[in-house]
User: What shape does this take?
Amino acid sequence: MILRAVGDRSTWRAELAVALFLIAFPWIFPAIGGYANLATRILILGLFGIGMDLIFGYTGMLSFGQAAFYGTGGFVTAYLLSTGLLHNTLWALAAGTIVAALCGTLIGYLCLRQAGVYFAMLTLAFGEVFYFLENSPLAKWTGGENGLPGLPKPEIPLGFTTLHVHSNLALYYFVAVCFFAGYWIARRIVRSPMGAVLRAILENPARAAAVGHNVPKYKLAIFTIAAAYAGMAGGLLGIFQGYMPPDAFSIDQSGEIIIMTIIGGAGTLIGPLVGAGLWSYLREALQNLHGVGAFWKIILGLTFIVLVTLFRRGIAGGISDGIGLFRLRRAPAPRTDEGTA
Amino acid sequence: MDTRNGTKESALSRNLFLKGTAAAAATATVGFPAIVRAAKSAKSYPALGTFPAGVSGDTAMIGIISDLTGSYSADGEDLVKGYKLAIKHLNGGGGLVSKVPTLSGKGVLGKRLVYKIGDSETKANPAVQAATEFIERDKAIMICGDTSSAVVIALAKLAQREKVVFLSGASGSNDTTGKDCQRYGFRSQPSAYMDAKALAPVLKKELGTKRRAVYLVPDYTYGTTLYDSMKEFTEKIGWTTVNHYLAPVGTTDYSSYLLNIANSGADVFVNIEFGNDAVASTKQAAQFGIFKTMQMIVPNISSYMPDGVGAEIMAGVYGTQDWYWGLAGNKAYPEAAANSKIFLDAFLKEYHGIYPRWTAHIAYDQTLTWADAVERAGTFYPPEVIKTLESGHKIDLCLGPVAYRAGDHQQIRPVPVLKGKKPSAMANKDDYFEIVGMVPGAEAVPPLGLFGCHLPGYT
Amino acid sequence: MNWHLLIAQLLNGLALGSILALVALGLTITFGLLGLVNFAHGVFFMVGAYAGLVTFERTNSFALALLAGALVVLALGIVVERVLIRLFYRRPPEDQILVTFGLAIVIVEIVRAIFGGKTQLFPMPPWGMGATNLGFLVYPNYRLQVIVIAAITLTAIYLVLYKTRLGLIVRAGIDDSLIVNILGIDVTKTLLAVFVIGAMVAGFSGVIDAPIVAVDPDMGASVLVESFVVVVIGGLGSFTGSIAGGIIAGEIISITTIWAPDYAQVMLYLAMALVLILRPQGLFGTEGRL
Assistant: This one.
């Protein structure tokens, strides 16, 4: 009973901490050389990463094709807004998210027949299909290699008034609200009975199936949800930049989100945000130093290798383990990744 | 290497020292009206984009975006060299700065120019990111660069949204000053239409009227609009368009396209590829024996294409370039000869014997043109700078007197038509072309509005 | 229908396919024998190309360039296996993918730091210049030679792995390391040998392909993805499969280009997806190992 109360309070603590952080971030970030647009970019990647974390960190599926949904959501949103078919930013964003989720269901249905290596390669292949489709056959709508420029700044009708999101800071808070909603929903998911099943699948898919869970159905559901996260993040990217880039579909994009998720800490939901922050900040801080420019990626790559080899919980995982250690005065049970082969 | 850096640095600090003392001593004399003028102008305009935040100190920042890696990186490097030289001359005098009466060689409106360079990797997303950072973090008062039309268009739209003047680097697409034209974007390179229109009469004269052409086209705005324009003007001189093949930017193996081209029955191969892609496709075309039966035309020849494919292949190839160093001191083209020579000599000196290519020329001339407009406007306030650039005032740089067209921000300028020299006829290793003609800008430009340009507002 | 063009594209598909087969072979050896998916395979290909380029520029000898490409990557393979990969043989496939993926990023960036990001042209060896007139088409000599080189290399590797005592030990060591250990053979060396052979083949193919394409730090990425397609179509871990898969992939690209160049790449990936859905173990793969 007592333990449960602690658990519940810590639930709200996590949300509260994230909310406070999101509010304060653009004000503390400049102290270390950051600025509002960089903060916005980090949140967008963090949101994208929540989806990645749901399928990889919580369910153990390593997808190399998440960029397909990031790009799909982005281009649907961007197309609707740049052609003026929709003026309400939220509707366009919702449309992008839904189309990305539908693509997720379709691709998930095809890829989830396989696991492990084959799943990784299949998602990679479908990611490439989306990239090439965007580039040539669909170029009439997506702009192909040009991408879609000319998205207006967000307009959000609230019934009584229309919110015009114009300044960089306003844009940040718009994205922050979206991020928080995404984080809040993801927390509900992982703490629900569905979350428990997902973790059971992560630990041992065969056992999860043996005790009567419909493993493929759960996998497809979470894959679809992850695609929706990617789609929404893609939509926000286009709105934020005023331009939807074709490279959203690239393999690099799929790879980067994996790296960010793992560096930050898979299975923590907030980890991807930490990873995205570190990635973007180091890139920014080191890239403009003459001669050091190229090394930021080497440093991050090496960090990534060390984390994969030794600590699969990443930075946020390490911190939350540390907090748990402090609070409960006992070490949390370490996750035995080695044993799942 | 060390000693050279040493002298450079000491020269720089001496310069700064001299400037400092001059400014301190001259408050009562020369400097005074300038300061008053600056103070007045800063007060009389509202804040817009990065104005006045970007020019509140004693420097003004230029954000350069270029392809340092990726398919167009050789051209991108040449472009950066041009910007650096222009900024050096604007800050410290030299080159064509001494030929433009408004330019002092002591910065622009008394502000020393500083710059940062962002790598676009020939992709729009890194370019837009870098430009956004220059605008937000560094308060860049002007952004410029890149060598891909897709990237340039994305940057111009960003510039329009953020209200910061943007000078496009190499961009040949009709859309840049057509349907995607921007109030805040300016383009000096000839458009695809201008290249094709300038080239067609030469092709008619040299190759006749009964040719069959096949095209290799990079699959984005530059490629498709240049293809459209070439098709239009070559069909006007009686040519047939047999087929065209679109290839993604960054393709490494062109063999399957080239087999189609070899089998097309055409006798002219129009290669629209650019940068590394132009080099790779042309070298592979030679391996497939395509040049034994076909004449090659490259409507817009990339800066380093001849170096990549070699003079044997380039010999006899027709095409255009924005500028070619052979104009320097060239008696046949007196309007461009003297100033091109000044630019060429300054560039050769700065970069120790490396020849400038046309991408460097775009960077150099446009930066000076912008500085001249700022000086004549007397303010960095973007709408005033833009109106000055739109005024039709001609500036006399490497190509002779040129000006932007107010209606679409395309520069009206002559188009050099080139033909590749035989290796035996080359005077030095950079002497790849003879200049067949310079088609006056007024003859080459498309009628205003042909490509659907509607300039958005100033604010 | 232009029959000349079809035959020309079929031949070109064979040339494209033979390089793809060669690259995919290294990947399939490591997977088939070690059960390890190497996402750094493309990087070995790229490092081989750079080693070949540097050697060719210094010595003007393509044979030395080939040797350098193979040897440099051999050395790299030894270091990588000893320091990192050996820790991962018993980890889940996701971990193997992640660590080799991270490794790929680090090596690409190191090469970029050394050689710069610009594309460098690899000169054609003198004997590869010129073209052969086959009557109905002119086809570059080098591409014809590549088909021959690939065929010889593939045969040689096949003979080493499947017809020699060394190959026998290697395969036995993978199947039952305990017994082989009892027989007094060091299994860790066997694992090392397999990994290094796979890497060496990649480095070698990098040099072969370099005169056709060009050399840049990112050239490995597309090669990696294409060789995935090849091994998935042919069957991951199957020797015959990687050859058949390579040729099928080359032909798909070439033949689609005749009618719809835009769809060449899409068709390739759709073919892969189709195989995975209908016959997950690949055309020549055997079920079981995953």
Summary: Chain B has 16 helices and 15 strands. The CA atoms of residues 237 and 397 of chain B lie 33 Å apart.
